[in-house]
Amino acid sequence: MDDIKIFAASKSAEKFTKEICDYLKVDMGKVNRQKFKNDNNFVQVLETVREKDVFVVQTTEPPVNERIMEMLIMVDAIKRATARRITLVLPYYMYSRTDKKDQPRVPVTAKLLAQLIEAAGVSRVLTCDLHNPAIQAYFNINVDVLTGKSHLEKYFDQKEIDNKVVVATDAGSSKKAYKYAEHFKCPIALIDKRRDGNDDKAIATSVIGDIKGKNALIFDDEVDTAGSIMETVRVVKEFGAKDVYVGCTHGVLSGPAIDRIRSSEIKELVMTNTIPLTEEKQLDKIVVVSLSELFGEAIKRINEATSIGELFEPSV
User: Fold this and answer.
1) Residue 143, SS3?
2) What is the mean pLDDT of the chain?
3) Which of these CATH numbers, 3.40.50.2020, 3.20.20.80, 1.10.390.10, 3.30.70.1050, describes 149-289?
4) Span 258-262, average pLDDT
């Protein structure tokens, strides 16, 4: 791995990048970052990347648009320094929920972001648990999609929770819930839920399946404002569930999410570190599972041109 270089695209991505570098036993690339008085960003790579296999890591925490510009500017600097290949490591793909034109006169920002990434000079993208697997098709370059599923399963296996039931938040997530239920060898239940307009308000009304007296496990790809999860938790508790655990890959936790989680009947919210959990968002009932080694192993295999297929499972 002598030809590998790994850079953090921003200050906020340094912790995740350092954990990857520690796993691979390589030094994190040195960068000079500045913000000019006119609010323009400046980046200078402080070591040679000529003909190197370069990985640029960018995590997502607000402001998201600033994070996008940081990574595009970093990629441009590395491309102009004649790197052999640039792989963009995006643990969480920004704008992933704006993935289709489902209303008149609206953008498909997930596709626009893909075009910007390619135009900047990225050769390959490494990401995790896309909100919509079809986002891969927005790119004309290779996109590898890891998953946090096995890490969440391992955590709950170690807790040895008895009398479990996996609860699907809606019909669309039933296939994913079924995969978790297969792993835990437990039954599955389904929430009848409708979403109202653009305000993320989810209305859950009933449960299909037996959850009375059982410990409910709810899985989703991300928790944003926590509105949908709170509705699911409310309904499963109304229908007699005992303890309620929530697992997700991406803890966006925007707006009222932390207050909702703090005052909720959730026993634990288990999420991965694809998005940094800032100090003000840390709660006793929030547990973070690291995917840094998973990404480190994927980077190693990409660099060595060996298979990374066993590191991820097909999306459902």
Assistant:
1) strand
2) 93
3) 3.40.50.2020
4) 96
